[in-house]
Amino acid sequence: MKIVKLNISGMHCSACSGTIEKNLQKIPSIKTIKINAISGRAKIAYDETQIAESKIIELITSYGFPASLDDSKALEIAYIKGLKKRLWVALPLFLVIFALHMFGVHGSLSSIVQLTLASVVQFYCGLPFYQGAKSFFKTKSADMNVLIALGTSVAYLYSLYLFVSGENGFYFEGSSAVICFVLVGEYLKSSAKKRASDELEILAKLLPAQARLVENAESKTTKWVDVDKIQKGDKCLVIGGEKIPLDGVILSGQAEVSSAHINGEELPKALTSGAEVIGGSLVLNGEIVIEASKDSNEFFVYEMLDLLELSQSQKPPIGVLADRIASVFVPSVVLLSLMSFVFWWIWSSELAFALSIAACVLVISCPCALGLAVPLAIVCASMRAKKSEILIKSPDIYEKAKQIRTIVFDKTGTLTKGEILVKDFKILSQSKDFILGLSFAMQENNPHPISKAILEFAKDSTPLKLESKTYAIGKGVQATFNAKNYFFGALDWVESKSGTNLGEIARENCVALGSEHEILALFYLQDSIKNHAKATIEALKMRGIQSVILSGDNEASVAKVAQELGVEQFFSGVNPEQKADKIAQLAQNGAVCFVGDGINDALALKGASFGISFAQATELAQEVGDVLLLKDDLWGIVEVFELANATLKNIRQNLFFAYVYNIVLIPVAAGVLYPFFGIVLQPAFAGAAMALSSLSVVSNALRISKLKLERCA
Fold first, then answer.
1. For residue 502, what are the CA distances in angstroms to 143, 478, 519, 692?
2. Tens of pLDDT along 255-285?
3. Which helix (H) or strand (E) holds 165?
């Protein structure tokens, strides 16, 4: 199986991308197809033993949509320039034709001028629509191009017939107006598409173009290579002021590294040998040698880019419904136009009037706005989410978020930082300086999380010089100082070694320091709660969402966190399989969202209606959540729900704008008001209304890009 990424131009909406997908799906050797009508990008998986990459490109191009492996930016810019050029030709020519028609300037010279100018507009400015429409004969799928080409051709050819016959009453202004207005709408939509795809372009440029590859580890001789040539195991040298070009592990050196523009961590970190780094991070100072932990095409930045493109090419259920309607809409409109033509020709005996009605029905019914309503909103929403360090992998959540009644949190690493701290300290014997100095010495160079907490707590003390130190796995540390034995570790173990029993005291999360005859001090530990955790749970409660904690930790620890955060329901001591069962039980009372670290909680994340996880450095590929919070801030959960609700509302508004013009104006275009009120729609006004429909959808969708999300107080 091989994957090819293509850039496709000429797609106006999802009806166009649907035409490509529908025809490619008929080819057995093509396995999966993901096409984004907004960005113009496609990702196609195929059997390279059955079909060549060049053949796929040839097929898509033959459908009327030029496909290429070339740089998407260049193609996009070229397409927009072409639209602009044709628009600036069409607009003044249309105004001249319109003026001659409106002010009643008749005669042979006027007729020749109108025919000449209208021909330029029809066959030069309208050429892209003819190129797109010709694919109908190959694909048997009608799209927007077919409606525009048919509608304008009817008006133009009938006007040409009148010109040859020496009569007046041309519709040249109608055909020219439609092409002019459509080009205006296309230019505005393409500009909006470009702004959306620019966000992806910025993301793709996070990595530097080249990397300094280490050829000889001893002499550190290097050579510059393109980043996309880096393979797993390659070693690269990065110095202060440069971006890290790869995902990997530091082999040697030390540096201060900032990843703020990738994962939102505001403060830089001092990193040394063994630390993992993300490609695109900035080395502020120092010098490090990094070994690539994966090939270049699997780097974090590219994975995130692929996920963004994938999320934009997928459709939520409401989008799938819109596409189904659009797929039957065009042939239905062509049939309606033909029926209207036949009816009015028989009823009025006027060919010109019947043709005008048929052209109006074709033009006013263009489904471009309908096809843009959902995908453009999804693209704008995903880009707005990225600004808030949120990556939405599945567009289903835009609808599912509205149904969520319960949100379930894992505790350790989700609600809490997963970093143990000393919350309380009790001295039972000896001086504070002695106890802290001895504790620091006994825990020094021990990587255990509890040791790190003790070292941080006693960092200002003066370490004592020990005579010996040994580790009792799972129990603690034994050391000798001034020929006396001391013990640091689990309270029960220290009591047994000291021959004492403290009786009824608080023992939860407690470690002790003792000698051979007594307990010297008690250290009470706590996993600190994350910033904004309580505010997040309160904000969700205001939205009618109940919070539940589901943890494998002991009951006392979970209860303590639940009480501090104001969570009424919690479950403790559950393993990963039991978590999934609990999710299923809670789902009986309504849709459930699960928030976890995405690795140990994979079953629970998949079992929920949708899952929210945290993208931690190079672990992105293992994350199974539908939403990834790139910044370790729980308030992002509130932003997810707020953005989802706003996006779903925007999609519904877009569909309203798309449908209302068709529902109201198609009957008017078909002439239902003419027998009663003498009202009939001219092709020029039909073109303007169609363009206005698309403009309404585009401008409304772009509002999501500027959406101001609620901030944590």
1. 82, 20, 8, 81
2. 878 765 554 444 567 788 888 887 878 887 7
3. none
Question: Phi and psi (nearest 5°) for 512?
Answer: -135, 155
Distance (Å, rounded) from C-alpha 233 to C-alpha 217?
13
Instruction: Indicate if 410 belongs to the active site.
Output: yes
Clarify whether residues 547 and 625 are in a common domain.
yes
DSSP 679: -
The domain boundary residue, chosen from 636, 662, 683: 636
DSSP designation for 166: T
Tokens of 189: 């939509």
Letter for the amino acid at 598? G
Question: Cα separation of 383 and 308, whole Å?
Answer: 8
Kindly give the interhelix angle for 144-164 and 317-348, rounded to the nearest 10 degrees: 20
Picking from 658, 630, 644, 17, the residue whose alpha carbon sits closest to that of residue 278 is 630
Q: Which domain holds residue 656?
A: 73-207+299-385+637-713
Q: Total structural domains in the chain?
A: 5
Contact present, 173 and 98 (Cβ < 8 Å): yes
Dihedral angle, C-alpha 172, 174, 176, 178, nearest 10 °: -160
> Any idea what DSSP says for residue 170?
-
| Nearest-angstrom CA–CA distance, 316 and 397 | 8
pTM over 0.70: no
Cβ neighbours for 430, distance < 8 A, ≥ 6 positions apart: 520, 521
Note whether residue 421 is domain-resident: no
Pairing mode of beta strands 468-472, 476-481: antiparallel
Residues 324, 402 share a domain:
no
More confident call, 486 vs 682: 486
Which of the 8 DSSP states describes residue 712? P
Confidence of residue 418 (pLDDT cuts 50, 70, 90): low
Q: What pLDDT, on a 0 to 100 scale, did the predictor assign at position 522? A: 94
On whether both 87 and 12 belong to a single domain, the answer is no
How many C-beta atoms lie closer than 10 Å to residue 215's C-beta? 10
Query: Is 418 inside a domain boundary?
Result: no
Q: Among 624, 545, 642, 557, which Cα is nearest to 586's?
A: 545
- Which entry of 410, 527, 553, 597 is annotated as an active-site residue? 410
Helices 172-204 and 300-313, packing angle to 10 deg? 150
